[in-house]
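Retry 2 of 3 after timeout on previous attempt. Resubmitting structure tokens to design endpoint.
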């Protein structure tokens, strides 16, 4: 069904040949043909599609790609916005154990820098300053040669993933379930770099900067600059990465350098990273304050206008799971259904359960250990359906602290963050 939304375009992706003296600059622009209404035909003929639970719209519906840059290599993603570019991945396209580049969601607050589209990292440096003994300015070569290089599979999820299911709705990209992925990242530990600079006792927080242009075009304005508590920055799984799945970072995912801060909202994982400012207070860059990536300090009734002063920074991400096979709206022969997917948490997932009867009964799925801390974990279950008919399959993860995914949207909040309700797919069996 995703064939019609597939785009096959050569991307101006960075390659190791992009060394400025030798390489020709790749073409700046990659134009796509609009997938357009053709995508809609993919959903016609599914008899029960219109009776899906609210929010489970067929993929392709929101697809309206125009002429765009930098994401032509994406395969079957749903475009939520093209200025800035935001696109999510249908659950069944996240079936890979390691998320390939062409299936990783895109979340941009501003534009994509031209140097990235050109695959040009000439003169790139990372500045580390603020509450450190010795401010550093590191070239990419220095990063790779002066610090231990590590490769980790780390889950990246947008804080707003699941926003579309809140009632009343929240403004922002209407992510359903697909603003998550788990590629393999290569880089160095942020901790090692911070320790090389010498973190002062006064350090409280980091402040991250990239060079993506603000949508206003005003060069003085910063699209987004978030940070994390210094303890999180010093965790061994928080990386400064230059490669994803063994390739240089794709332009749209931060070429040539980005942070990967697993367990925290994706917004902490600054792309096109140029500077880490160690702060003696909670960072106050754009999108740290107000309602951005913030939650009410106390439970509020849906729709409440929460005073800004009562909003607190969202830190860890909640436990969650995703069924990646079968695809929702599948027609299945027979009554024995193989279900599989991934689960993740800020830490580790202890169990995944699946239900075929709207949560009245649950069966435990087989769950694998993560390949490393903060990698998503794979689960499988064979569900024996009692008779032919319409079913929803639900998945529910439990983390090692005993926290369980709720069956309905948890804690309404003004911007719709942190929705970790169970994942549901629809299946017609027999
Ligand atoms: N420089 C920069 N970094 C950024 C962003 C951005 O807009 N600019 N978006 C953040 C948000 S909100 C998320 S969820 C992740 C998304 O990463 P991805 O686009 O590689 O999937 O990047 C984060 N890093
Ligand atoms: Mo995000």
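Retry 2 succeeded. Sequence:
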């Amino acid at each position: 069904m995703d064939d019609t939304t597939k785009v096959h375009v050569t991307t101006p992706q960075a390659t190791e040949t992009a060394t400025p003296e030798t390489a020709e600059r790749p073409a700046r622009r990659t134009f796509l043909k609009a997938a357009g209404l053709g995508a809609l035909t993919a959903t016609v003929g599914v008899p029960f599609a219109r009776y899906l639970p609210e929010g489970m719209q067929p993929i392709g519906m929101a697809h309206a790609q125009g002429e765009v840059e930098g994401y032509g290599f994406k395969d079957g993603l749903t475009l939520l916005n093209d200025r800035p570019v935001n696109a999510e991945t249908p659950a069944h396209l996240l079936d890979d154990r390691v998320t390939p580049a062409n299936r990783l969601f895109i979340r941009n607050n501003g534009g994509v820098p031209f140097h990235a589209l050109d695959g040009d990292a000439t003169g790139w440096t990372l500045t580390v300053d603020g509450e450190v003994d010795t401010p550093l300015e590191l070239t990419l070569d220095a990063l790779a040669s002066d610090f231990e290089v590590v490769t980790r599979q780390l889950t990246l999820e947008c804080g707003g993933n699941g926003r579309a299911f809140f009632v009343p709705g929240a403004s922002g990209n209407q992510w359903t379930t697909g603003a998550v992925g788990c590629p393999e990242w290569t880089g160095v530990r942020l901790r090692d770099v911070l320790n090389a600079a010498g973190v002062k006792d006064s350090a409280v927080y980091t402040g991250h900067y990239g060079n993506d242009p603000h949508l206003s075009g005003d060069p003085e304005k910063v699209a987004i600059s978030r940070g994390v508590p210094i303890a999180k920055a010093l965790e061994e799984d928080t990386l400064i990465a230059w490669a994803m799945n063994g390739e240089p970072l794709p332009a749209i995912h931060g070429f040539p350098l980005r942070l990967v801060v697993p367990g925290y909202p994706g917004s902490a994982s600054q792309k096109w990273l140029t500077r880490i400012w160690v702060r003696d207070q909670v960072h106050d860059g754009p999108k740290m304050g107000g309602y951005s990536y913030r939650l009410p300090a106390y439970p509020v009734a849906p729709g409440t206008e929460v005073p800004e002063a009562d909003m607190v920074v969202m830190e860890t991400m909640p436990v969650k799971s995703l069924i990646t096979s079968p695809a929702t709206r599948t027609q299945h022969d027979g009554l024995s259904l193989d279900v599989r997917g991934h689960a993740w948490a800020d830490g580790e997932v202890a169990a995944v359960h699946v239900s075929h009867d709207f949560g009245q009964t649950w069966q435990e799925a087989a769950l694998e250990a993560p390949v490393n801390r903060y990698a998503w974990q794979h689960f499988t279950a064979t569900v024996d359906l009692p008779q032919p008919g319409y079913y929803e399959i639900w998945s529910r993860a439990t983390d090692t602290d005993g926290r369980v995914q709720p069956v309905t949207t948890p804690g309404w909040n003004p911007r719709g963050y942190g929705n970790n309700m169970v994942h549901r797919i629809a299946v017609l069996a027999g």
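Attempt log closed. The helical segments are 114-117, 140-146, 190-197, 230-233.
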